[in-house]
Amino acid sequence: MSASAALDPNALEQFASGPARAPAPAARVRAGSVRPRLAVVKSDAPAILAAITAAALDPAVPVEKMEFMRRLYLEARTSAARSAYTVAMNAAQAAMAPIAANAVNSDFDSQYATYAALDRAMRPIYTAHGFTVGFTTEPSDLQRHQRVVIVLNHVDGHGETHRADFPADGLGDDGAPAQTLIHATASAFTYAQRYLLCLAFNIAVAKDSDGNIVAPPPEAITGGQYAELVFLLDSTATDEAEFARLLKVTNLAALPSHQFEHAKRLLQARKAA
């Protein structure tokens, strides 16, 4: 879906004049804050914890039973955290679109998306769904390689890591020295960030059918603007995916910045209707 596609005036008017549905109490958050958009995952952990609390007050309950209940609680909590992670990952990936390549490697005649471009497109989405992303390094078993690790943590407690080894020898395609080792290490880390971030969220870097670089998309709204629209979506019980389709964008976080005020007015009008 293209951000430049013509908007349907009738559909926009119908949306703005339609009555807003009452928001769920949990949706009432401060505008401008980036609130994780988390699905509720059912868990037996609260019930087990309540049983443990009650058992702790009964001196007749044996220690072995308390230990068994404790293990059940930890297993239930771990299972719920994993489920919440999967649900959030599904929602985040559904909101992400292929990202256009915005840089050229002249040595190999190839195009790629810079880490800055990936971060700008992906961070507002994955943080809104409760993820944090970090990178670290580990010793590599391969000579002149750097092992880089991406760490994904979710607010409900589950985390995952992905790691890979990247050449950092400073040699060119012909085997001759082309970089200092410091430069090579920095280049390997930057490349690893791009590679692992796309790997973790299963994101493709898009090119056109001729293999040429895709025209850079217009500047998207900021994370704060996205959060403001999310607040209005919640306060009018409007589905984010449906609103994005109305505005002819693949996902709301990719909305061009020049359309922000228009989108905001539509939601405000719907809220007032």
Automatic annotation (TrEMBL):
Alphabetized InterPro entries for the sequence: ERF_bacteria_virus (IPR007499)
Superkingdom of the source species: Bacteria
UniProt name for this protein: ERF family protein
Organism: Caulobacter segnis
